[in-house]
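Practice set, problem 2.
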Amino acid sequence: MALAKMSVAELERFLRDEFPQAFSGDDITIESADGQTSLLRQRYSERMLRPGGTVSGPTLMALADFAMYVVLLSAIGPIGLAVTTNLNINFLRKGQPGQDVLAEARLLKLGKRLAVGEVNLLSGTSPDPIAHVTSTYSIPNV
């Protein structure tokens, strides 16, 4: 795969301008993105929890999808109309309240029209994933 076409700073500027509904606050940060992988952190908030005191599925799915979008943009450049065509998630264990959630995304295949990747979601400092995601994105002709 090629080197990154967008730096973290460029990704942040693009996302704040083009996708503010997902990246306008300070709860999600892009820690790294290199055209093949990305690491995002979602700071803990009680809004993340579902009844029973675990991190909610919608929180994890949204973070995983966003991490895939970030790694894809870092690989292809500022093509905002790339869209998710499939996302599959396996919840593996409880996400602990009070802990940030990390999303480690990796592109498995980058084609001209489709990109396939995976995301491991981690709670706090534990090395054991709380969820595993596979995802496919459609890349528009530009």
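Problem 2, part (b): a different protein.
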Amino acid sequence: MRKTQITIDVELDENHIPELMTWNAQDGGVEKEETKAVMISVWDEKAMEALRIDLWTKEMPVDQMKMFMHQILVSLGSTYQRATGEEDVAQWIEQMAEEFAIKSAIKM
């Protein structure tokens, strides 16, 4: 069995707020790439729930956070379709993402 690793390093200020985050992905050739936001979800099979880590630096601009969230919503539709084959639900998620883009003023 082959093993790989993805890591996220977080530097915190005195109030434990992320100031600098970098990530590494061995197989992707990514080393100490700076990022302003990270969202990780893992499935806890025993509790039957998603566990999440949502982090962003105090330097993350609100307009970029809105774009980040929109792109995550769009990708959820694609992921859902690939995982379940339910095209109608995937399209609904993508429509919801477009409504979000309009309501959050990143699209007119």
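Answer key, part (b): The mean pLDDT is 96. The chain is about 35% helix and 35% strand.
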